[in-house]
Please model this.
Amino acid sequence: MLATQALFSLGLLQLKGQEERKPDLELAKYNIDMLETIEEKTKGNLTEEEERVLSTTLSELRMGYVRVAG
Model:
């Protein structure tokens, strides 16, 4: 859910028929920061698959943030 919110905030995910919105970088950063906190707090308590998914998701969101922020 946080990842989806970050994608919407970055303008990288749009609902069909929705007007294109200006990215909200502050909200996107907040959601990415929340996922980073979850990653830190769950370190050692996740399966390898869960760690991989979380790490990959964060990497993709960070790259998206940099691309949108310029």
